[in-house]
Design brief:
The chain folds into two domains: 147 residues, Gcn5-related N-acetyltransferase (GNAT) (Aminopeptidase, 3-Layer(aba) Sandwich), CATH 3.40.630.30; 31 residues, no CATH class. The chain has six helices and eleven strands. Strands 1, 2, 3, 4, 5, 6, 7 and 8 form an eight-stranded mixed sheet that branches. By secondary structure, it is α+β, with helices and mostly antiparallel strands. The longest helix has 14 residues.
């Protein structure tokens, strides 16, 4: 059996930049897996997957809201912290959010490469023809919102599941950080889940001196329900008790 004799595997990222311009970069990425022999733990063998061309863009016009909505669905990602899991994000609100975002980074790859990722080889045409955001698949995204003076926050980082662990997420974060620091903005926060904390730590993020955490405003007249003299609001699939307002005289 092929799995016999292997006790450990470590993933290394290999990224090669072959083309860059002011608003776009073409890079080759792959996952390199190191396997350790069961019989000789000091002997390692490198197994490299094929190089994949990906297109990194910072041009807001390359982000099509409908494609981004589809990417959210594929990545099981929500733009809302308290989502209604039965409905996707409103496309008009998404379009407005994108227009008011200060940094947009999108990643594209050829659809047939994504579909045939498990195969050992690809057609030579796939590598000779350039990746283009106008005709290829949106596979990664991230954005930042800033006051352009002091602070900025990174939101909605996502990479299609089949292309994860290839360094694409780090490419997106580094691109966003570079664009913000070029504007002399260094107070950069990342809104992430508990599972994403180690990833952002590897990208250079850490806790601040205030030990800050994210709290969401939940008191809304439209979503509140009343039962037994108490008010509740829905947060995803949970009901949160709304404490009564304190009347001051």
């Amino acid at each position: 059996m092929a799995a016999m004799g292997v006790v450990a595997a470590y993933t290394h990222i290999h990224v090669t930049e072959v083309f860059s311009s002011k608003s776009m970069e073409l890079k080759w990425v792959r996952t390199r897996i190191t396997k350790t022999s069961h019989f000789n733990k000091n002997k390692e063998k490198n197994l490299s997957t094929p190089l994949l061309p990906v297109y990194i863009s910072t041009n807001p016009r390359h982000v099509v809201p409908q494609q981004l909505q589809d990417l959210c669905s594929t990545c099981n990602h929500s733009f809302q912290r308290f989502p209604d899991t039965s409905e996707p994000v409103d496309i008009n609100k998404l379009r407005i959010a994108l227009s008011h975002s200060d940094v947009l980074v999108s990643v594209f790859c050829k659809p047939n490469i994504v579909d045939e990722l498990g195969k050992s080889s690809f057609s030579i045409v796939d590598f000779l023809s350039p990746v283009s955001p106008s005709r290829d698949l949106l596979v990664g995204f991230g954005r930042a919102v800033s006051d352009f003076g002091l602070t900025a926050s990174i939101y909605d980082l996502m990479v299609i599941p089949s292309l994860r662990r290839m360094g694409i997420g780090k490419i997106i974060v580094k691109k966003i950080v570079r664009m913000l620091t070029n504007r002399d903005i260094y107070d950069i926060a990342a809104l992430c889940s508990e599972d994403e904390r180690l990833f952002f730590k590897a990208c250079g993020f850490a806790g601040d001196i205030l030990d800050s955490t994210t709290m969401m405003y939940t008191r809304t007249a439209s979503s509140a329900t009343h039962e037994g003299g108490q008010a509740f609001t829905r947060a995803g699939q949970k009901l949160l008790l709304i404490p009564p307002l304190i009347k001051r005289h």
